[in-house]
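Troubleshooting log. The previous structure file for this entry was overwritten by mistake, so regenerating from the original sequence record. Sequence copied from the archived sheet and checked twice against the printout by T.R.
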Amino acid sequence: MKLLAVVMLVLLAGGWVVLNQIGGANYRKIAKLQMEGLRLRTLVPPMLYILDRLKLTARFPLFFFKIQRSVQKLNGQRHSAEMTLLYVGEMMCYSWLLLALGCLLTLAMGEGTGLAIGSVLGLLLPAAMVKDMHGKVQKRDHDILMELPELLNKIVLLVGAGETVQKAISHCVNQKRQEKNHPLYRELIKMADDLEGGYSFQQAFENFSKRCAVQEVSIFTTTVLLNFRRGGSDFVMALSDLSRTLWEKRKAITRTRGEQASSKLIFPMVVIFVIVIVLVGAPAFMMMNM
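Regenerated output below.
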C-alpha cells in the first residue's frame, strides 16, 4: 500500500508540474478573474488545461450549464463561462489536494486508510461546493423576493402621489444606494447607472430583469413596461395586485426560513439533553455502586 501511495503522490505532483509547464500559461488570465470565495487560484491553470483537453464541457453540458447559471446569478453575466471553468477547476484542485493528503497519510500510518479517506473526501468536497453554491443562489433569490414587495409598495405610493414611474423607481433606488450588498438594490443601482449612461428605460429595465433571473422580478418588469406609459389608476392597480401576491410569497419564505432555523436547533438541543442526563445520572449511578 505504501508503494501505491508513493506512485500516486509522484504522479499527482509530477503531473501538476508538467501540465503547468505545458499549458498553464494559457489559463493564468482566467485564474486572475475576480470571483468571490476562490482560494486556490495559483493551482487552477493545470486543471483548466485538463478541462480543455478532455473537452469536459461538451461531455457534461448539463452539469456545466447548472454551474454557469449559478455563477451568473452570483457574479454577473460578464465572463460567466470563464468563471464557471474557474470554479470547476477549483473543485478539481481540492480533490487533487485531498488525494495527495491521503497518500501522505498512508505513508505516515502504513495503512490504506489514509488513501481511502482522501479519495472519499476528494469526491464529497466538490459535491459540497456545488451544494453550497446552489444554497447561496437560493438565499439570493429569497432576499430579492423578501424585499420586492416593499419596493412595490413605495412605487405605488409615489405614483399615486403624482410621480412618474421612472422618477418613482429612481427615488427608491437613490434612497437605498448605501445597500450595495443587497442583491435587489445592487441590480437596481446598475439599472440606474445604465439610465444615466444613455440606455432607454425599457432596455435598462429588461437588463435588470435578466440579471436578477427571478420569475417574480420578470413579472414585475413586464407589468411596469406594459403600464408605465399610461400610469394613473391602471398602473397602480396592476402593481397593487402584484404586491399582494408577492407579500404572500414573502410570508411563505419567512415561514420556511423559520422552519429551517428550528430544525438546525434540534441537534444542539439533543446534545445538551444528553449532557444534562450524564450530569444528573452520573452521581446517582456512582452512589448506587457505592
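The chain has a mean pLDDT of 83. Archived copy saved in two places this time.
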